[in-house]
Structure formats: structure tokens, C-alpha cells
Amino acid sequence: MQFSPMRVPIETFRLDNGLFVTLSEDHTAPLVAVNLWYHVGSANEREGRTGFAHLFEHMLFQGSANVGTNEHFETIQRAGGTLNGSTWLERTNYFETVPSNHLEEVLWLEADRMGWLLPGMTQQKLDLQRDVVKNERRWSVDNQPYGTWWERLPELCYPRSHPFHHSLIGSMEDLSAASLDDVATFFRTYYTPDNAVLTIAGDFEPKAARAAVERLFGRIPRGPGRPSLPDMSLSSTFGGRQRRLVEDDVALARIFLAFRSPVFGSEEYYAASICAAILGMRRGSRLYRTLVRERQVAQDVGAYTFDLAKGADILVCDATARPGKPVELLEEHLEREIDQLVDRGVTDEEVERARALLETDFVNAMQSAGERADQLSRFATYFGEPRLLNEQVDRYRAVTAAAVGDFARERLIEENRATLVYVPRAEAAGELAEEGMEALA
Amino acid sequence: MTPRAVKEPRGGAAPRPEPGPPRPYQFPRFERRTLGNGMQLAVAPVHKLPLVTAIAVVDAGATHDAPGREGTASLVAALLGEGTATMDGDTLTLELERLGASLVTGGDWDTTNAGITVTRERLEPALRLLAEAVMAPSFPAREIERLREERLAEILQLRTEPRGLANEMATRFAYAPDARYSRPLGGTRESVRALGARDIGELYAARYRPAATTLVLAGDIAVGDATELADRIFGDWSGAPPTNGAGVPDTPNSMPRAVHLVAKPDAPQSELRILHPGIPRVHADYFHVVVMNAVLGGLFSSRINLNLRERNAYTYGARSEFDWRRGAGPFVVSTAVASDVTAAAAREALREIDRIRREPIDDDELSLATNYLAGVFPIRYETTAAIASALANLVIYGLDDDYFDAYRDGIRAVTAEDVLAAAQRHLHPERLRTVVVGDPATTRSSLEALDAGEVRVYDAEGRPIER
Predict the structure, then answer these.
(1) Given CB atoms, is A206 within the 8 Å cutoff of chain B?
(2) Does A135 touch chain B (CB under 8 A)?
(3) Does residue B332 contact residue B298 with C-beta atoms inside 8 Å?
(4) What pLDDT is stored for residue B467 in this prediction?
């Protein structure tokens, strides 16, 4: 059976308790993906509890009223399935792909932790996962070169009062402060059917799936209503240069250059996304061709958007200096490329290249049931309309070189640049520079 | 499934559903052909989406590097897209990317794979560019120099990147100093500095031959069309089969068992590796070892992860694996643990290795591992790229054409006795080397009490540091 990549089949309904459900059938393989997005992320954390949304995600694998500690993981793996969860600034997702005959069992597991999590929570489990998360922080942030960029860049790009300003993984201090009371409050506030979307994609029978969803999730009561976030809107530029220099345990300098950018899904977003691809996607991009291939001042480059749907997004370029190349030189070259894009815009060929790559990636991703389900959940969560997935290719096709030029002239300008620069620690800098020169000899 | 006592659900939840009967699954049918010039072709038609993955698998891996010139095969692989007889690297890249395809080349231990994934209607022009990159690279001096410098910069970066550093130090101590597996895939600073255009040209001329190459196509294409296309594009490539072979890459290190501590002062975490050479990919005990490792450390619900993460919270994750190669790649336990529990975590991992050799696993553990491995099989092959890689593996290891059809039965046939025998035969506690990249001040004395061999301390270059 062949279905068009641009037309993923979509059926939606909503339970009385507010749970929004998307079904997307595909019988090419006997497997099915279940995907839940809760509309809560680090942006919803209160003062003094940074990292809590993510710690809470860990707790969801620790059991619930009818599921034992780690039983969720074991059940899915025993079924021959894969699973995980992830936390982002605006949402938290949980997902499984299993042989299709296990669909109802997976839905039951998800329903149990959505409806009856708290009976499974204990102080001991919280303490244990807190230590696991502290180790995750050491692993992904503290003991990795440039690892702190994840928290330093949003800190630089969003005002202190903004929900995107603070660290997603959280500080050690705030993680230590998290209590079982916090778990209960967070659960009752945000882990409710009316603050979640459920997507099922793959090999299933829609009638039976709908009946199972109604039977398993329908009895979970609606929540008290999610507290609103503060006003997240921001002006279209930073209104001046931001800059921070960080000495770190790194061998080569790296620059992150960020621009305030239109939110995910907006008309302008698609021009921004094409612009990022023109700048830094793969080896035919401008930054690779000029900084890496031609001038050899950079070891690697990239450009991407964070895809945030509220307030303001950021578009980020990064570049790592080649040994022996001063970071000032790299920065000068990087800024010059941006200036040129602002002054002269982009060509039709560049737009075509970017679009062709993005389209192949899109079709490629749509092969996987888990990926289809995740994207459908994304559009359902942010816009209440999973069918937007089927419009993505056309939205990208509508972007012209003129639109990218307009975007650049509005957003890539001097007063909308934030620079985060990592340089080797002073005590090691001399030695490494020497080594670099030697390597060049 | 383990039978479960029926009990009334708590809290008003619905009763737990039982799974229905599994639906049938078959790995995609594929066919193999030989072109007139000796080049092999493997085609798996999968008409789900209008997409095709093409991979050229060339029998030219790091094990073909000349001694002292480690990194040659990797560099040749990277250079395939960097200039050909008719266009420079920049032009080739742009031509491909305008078709929505990116050339991905990778030199591995045994072979080099050069591949693209592209929409069906753009396959022919994209495949022509892939073919040109493989059949007619020009190796421009400027690009050789640039990619060599980039590799040297990577080596420099490794000093401050504890995970990569731990992996490289680990294999260095597991294999004999002159064995290819003891040196990084991409070469050492010394070997890469010594590399030049002549090494590149020699390896290419010796190994890149039609008879040593297989083109794999998976996706929205029929076997007949694929054969005709491959013949049209690759048919004129000529050359005799290669005459040289790979050396013996997997001689174990003979030095006494030790704990190798690579100093990263003030590190908040230790990167820990415990390893010894494992077994080659083609081995009579393969399925037994795969199931054994799934119980020991291959899954989230495996013994090592449940112990180190879910019981002790030493880590965010811990795993064990056999790194499959034509030669005996390493068996390795990998984790990153808080500095103050480095020795304790190593002790628990060593205990788990002892335990799986001492007593049979229970039925629940066996069924978890076999159900997982058999059940997850269709999920692994959802994409054209995954199917193409699977076919590439058949080629690389010379597996039977029915291998993927027989896989799930092979896994399900493994017993607890097989697992015990495999653990006793293929895990060797007395040969295990422990490698730590971490802070000596907080880890050294406890590592000395570990009883896993003498503790030796090194700098980030691997140079021994005196006490």
C-alpha cells in the first residue's frame, strides 16, 4: 500500500474529559506508535524549582497505582517495543512503538500514570531519581565541552522574567529542593487529560482503538484548568547586541550566534527555517562553503531554529575554530557572512537546495510510525490541529527568495545578535594554541 | 508472556488488557545480482513512500590501513565527495543537495559505505553523482590537506571530551599495541601527520574495485529497474579483484590486568569502561551471546542498568555491548558515574559479570530478552535506510540470504543454559581492563582497593604520570 507523504491519514476526536486524540492508520508493518504530549515544560516551572518538569518526567517511569517501579519499561521491552520520554521548554512527551497486538496494553499503562500516578510515588523513589537526574546533568552539561551552552544561550536571549530564560535541566540546588508535595501539585495541575494530546499511528483498527481509548482514559477526571503563563510576547529584535564570553575546559573556541526569530508555525517561521538551512545545513550551506571549505577558519558549522511556538523563537548559528585560528578572526568571518546575507539576500537556487533537503528529510522521517505520531502530537498541542502536518511541505514550497531576504533584513541585523563565545581556559590556552600551530605545521 | 494474577485495579482504573495474537511480519524480500564487471547488487523493493536509499559498500575499511598509516581508509572515505574527474567537491555537493540528497560516507573497520537517501524521481541523477564519487575521485591536494587538518583538530578536541577519550583509551589498553583495533579508526596524531596523497592513492587503487563493491538499493524501486539502472551507471567501471587483504586486527593486549586512570582533574563525573576483546561477528554462539548481553547490559531493563541506575543512582545510564566486527571487536561495559562512587560502580559492574557466569538466568529474564529482541525486529526496519544497512551487513559479514528471515527463530531458540555457557565461554573476568577518565584525587585510592589490577595514571595524551 502506498500513501502520499504529503497526506498522512488523520482522524481526530475529543473525550468528554478534554483529552484530544489523533488516529493515523498505516498497515504496512505490524507495529503501532503511541505518543502523548503534555502541554507543560520547563517554562511552567516556578521560581526555585528549575529542572522540575524534567525530574517529574523521570518519576512517570517509577510506577503508578497499578504499575510497579520500572514495570512500564519492562512491560514495553518484554512486548518487543521501544519507549522513552523527553522534556522541552514547552512540552513533555512520552512515546512507545510496539508490535500492534500490544496496543491496548500500552494505552492502559499510559492511562494508569495519567489517572493514578500519585499512589505509586514515594520519597525513596524521588530521592533516587533526583540523583539519577543529577548524574544526567553532570553527563550532558557539566562534564561535556561546551555543555553549558544549553542553559547559557537561552539565559542570554530571553529576559530574566521570561519563562524560557532559565535552565531546562535545572540547578543542583533546585533539584535538591524538589519535594513529594511538588510532585503532587505538578501532577494535579498539569498531568490532566485536558492538558494532553494522545496520538496513535500505525497498524490498528480505528473503531477498536477509539473504544479502547474511551474505556481506558474516559474515566480520568478533567483537571482544574491549567494556570496561564505570563505574557511571553517579545519585541522582534533584542534591541541591541548581547555578548558573553565563557572560559571552559575546551580545546577549540566555539561561537554561538543567536537571533530572535518568529515563533514556530507562523508565516515568517518558514522563511526563517529556510534561511537557517541556507546558512548552515550540510556541506552546501554558505557557512560551510566559506568558513570551512574556502577560508578554513572553522572546523565545523551549523544553523538551526529551536522551534519554540510561544513568545519568540531563536535562530542559532554555531562555528568551531580551527586550531591556531583566533576566535576574533572566526567571529569576524561569521558576522561578515551574516552581513552579506542581510545586504544581498539569497538566490532562488539556494532556496531550492534548502527546500529539497528539508523535503527529503520530511519524507524520510514520515516512514517511522513513532515520528509521524510525534509530529501529529506537536501540531495538536501547539495549534489544536494535527492536520497542519499535511500542509508543511506546501508551507515550505511557498517560501521565496524575497521572503528570506525580508526575514534577513528584519532579523539578522546588528541589534538582533546575541553572541556566546567559548574559549579554552586561560591556563591551558597557551599550551593548546602552541599544539594547534604544531598540528598545522 | 508471564501469566499474571487477575486482580482488581486500584483507583478506578480499567482492568489490564491482554495482548491479542501477533500479526505476521516478514523482512522485505530482496534479490541479488552480479553485474558484468563483477560488482554485486542487492535490491529490496519497499513501496511504502516514494523514497530510495542507495549504499555503495566497498571492501576497504580501517583494517586495510598500512601499519603506521592508520586513518588512511577513513580519509579516503571522507575524500570521496571532495572532487572527481569532472567536478570539484563544492560542485558535487551542490549538485547532490539540489536533488535533496546528501552524500554520507563513512570508513568503518571492515568496509567503507557511501550512501544517499533520495526521492524516487530524483534517484537516477543522484545515483550518477554517487557513482562518480566512488568510481572517479580525484583527491585534490587542497582537500586532502584540509580534511587531514580537520582530523588532527578532532584528535586535539578529544583531550577535553571525556566520553570519546574513554572509548579510545579503552581499546588502546585492550588490544596489543600493534593491533589495528588498538588504534583509533581515524588514526592517531602521529599516523595522520604521516599521511599523504600517496597513501590515499595506494589504498584507493588497491581496494576500490567493482568486484569488491556491492550496491544496495532499498525503497520504491523494482528489481528489474534497479538492475538496469545499476548496469547503466556502474557497468563501465573496470578493474581486477583486489589482491591484498586485511591484517590480523584483534590481537589482545598481553600486559597484566590493570586499572588505567586517565587524569581529568576536577571532573564532576568519571567515564568508566570495563572491557576485553570479544568475538567476531560470524560465530556459532552469536545468538547466545546477543541474548546473554541483553540480560547483562543491552537494555534499560538489564541487570547492569537496573543495578547502577535504578538501585544505586550512580549514573544516568549503564550498558554493555559487543562491538561487532569481522575480527574480535571489544566487549565493553560503559557508563558515566559520579566521581565519588567510581570504584563502587566498577565493583557492581564486575559483580554482574561474575554473576551471569556463575548461575543460570531465570525464566523472566530470558523471556524479557528474547521477546524484546524478536519483537523489536520490525521496528528496527521501518525505514529504507535501515533496510539498506541491514543488507549492507549481510554483505560485510557474508551472512546467508535467509539470515533476516531466520533471525527471530534463532533468538527464540536460545535457552538459559545457552546463556550460561555463552557467558562462561565469552566473558573473562581475569582479562577485563578497567579504564577511567576522571579526577585522580577523588577516585584513585578507592580504585586501588577495587582488586581489578594495579592502578596506572596517565595524562589526556595517554602518557604515564609518575606517582
Answers:
(1) no
(2) yes
(3) no
(4) 57
Q: pLDDT tens for residues A300-344?
A: 999 999 999 999 999 999 999 999 999 999 999 999 999 999 999
Residues of B in contact with A29 (CB under 8 A): 25, 378, 382
Reported as a single tens digit per residue, the pLDDT across B274-301 is 999 999 999 999 999 999 999 999 999 9
B379-401 pLDDT, tens digit per residue, is: 999 999 999 999 999 999 999 99
Look at residue A435 in the predicted model and tell me its pLDDT. Answer: 47
If you write DSSP's letter for every residue of B360-419 in order, what string do you get?
PPPHHHHHHHHHHHHHTHHHHT-SHHHHHHHHHHHHHHT--TTHHHHHHHHHHT--HHHH
Amino acid letter, residue A141: V
Contact B372/A78, CB-based, under 8 Å?
yes
Q: State the pLDDT confidence band at B67, using cuts at 50, 70 and 90.
A: very high
Tell me if A144 and B161 make a contact (CB, 8 A cut-off). Answer: yes
Q: How far apart are CA B220 and CA B435, in angstroms?
A: 47
Contacts of B357 (CB under 8 A, 6+ apart): B420, B423, B424, B427, B429
What average pLDDT score do residues A126-133 get? 97
pLDDT in tens, A224-276: 999 999 999 999 999 999 999 999 999 999 999 999 999 999 999 999 999 99
Distance (Å, rounded) from C-alpha B35 to C-alpha B56? Answer: 14
Secondary structure (3-state) at B151: helix
Please give the C-alpha separations between residue B75 and each of A35, B107, B134, in angstroms, as whole numbers. 41, 8, 13
- Asked if residue B291 lies in contact with residue B369, where contact means CB atoms within 8 angstroms, the answer is yes
Question: Could you say which of B25, B299, B385 has the minimum Cβ distance to residue A77?
Answer: B299
Confidence of residue A3 (pLDDT cuts 50, 70, 90): very low
Q: Which is more confident, B53 or B247?
A: B53
For residue A7, the model assigns a pLDDT of: 87
Pairwise CA distance, residues B359 & B80, whole Å: 51
Closest of B219, B230, B208 to residue B388, by C-alpha: B219
Mutate to test the interface with B, among A364, A422, A434, A435 (most CBs of B within 10 A): A364
How far does A135 lie from chain B, in Å, by closest CA?
Answer: 5
Nearest CB neighbour to B313, from listed A101, A131, A353 = A131
Residues of B in contact with A143 (CB under 8 A): 162, 267-269, 271, 336
Q: Which residue of B has its CA nearest to A288?
A: B90
CB contacts of A432 in chain B (<8 Å) are 156
**Angle subtended by helix axes A206-217 and A103-115, to nearest 10:** 20
**Beta carbons of A256 and A420 less than 8 angstroms apart:** yes
Whole-number pLDDT of residue A429: 53
Residue of B nearest to A435 (CA): B156
Q: Which three cell numbers stand for residue B99?
A: 536533488
Smallest Cα distance from B316 to chain A, Å: 5
**A234 touches B at CB < 8 Å:** no
Question: Does A12 contact B at CB distance below 8 Å?
Answer: no
